[in-house]
Specification:
124 residues; mainly alpha; IQCK; IQ_motif_EF-hand-BS
């Protein structure tokens, strides 16, 4: 698959920034399709899983882009949905009671210098 086809597959024409890097794609293709090393094609993986790439990136880390620039629309929707589900659960009265109980127990254990587990078993 050539780089333009991969860019279309990654939705690069619709977004200004994506996780797709065409240079990385070309390096990956050339590394694994080198006719001098046909055994590499059998062990095809992401270019970031190759040892010399990992060593290079340890010494020369890349800048981090904000998530909204590199996440796909589907992944961003999944993150928003999971956040909202968690918010709605934490908002429930019975969950708030449990959270307040543990918060109060933690504060009391700080004052008495006993661990939370010791305080919890003292309550019985």
């Amino acid at each position: 698959m050539n780089t333009l086809q991969e860019a279309a597959k990654q939705n690069c024409y619709d977004r200004q920034r994506t996780a797709f890097d065409p240079i990385d794609h070309i390096v990956e293709y050339l590394w694994f399709h080198n006719p001098k090393y046909p055994e590499r094609m059998k062990d095809y993986k992401s270019i970031y899983d190759v040892a010399w790439i990992q060593n290079y990136l340890k010494n020369n880390p890349r800048p981090c882009y904000p998530f909204h620039l590199i996440w796909s629309d589907e992944f961003a929707a999944l993150k928003i949905q999971s956040f909202m589900r968690g918010y709605w659960v934490r908002k429930r009265i019975e969950v708030q009671e449990v959270r307040n109980f543990w918060k109060q127990l933690k504060e009391e254990s700080r004052g008495s210098r006993t661990s939370i587990s010791q305080r919890f078993f003292m309550m019985d």
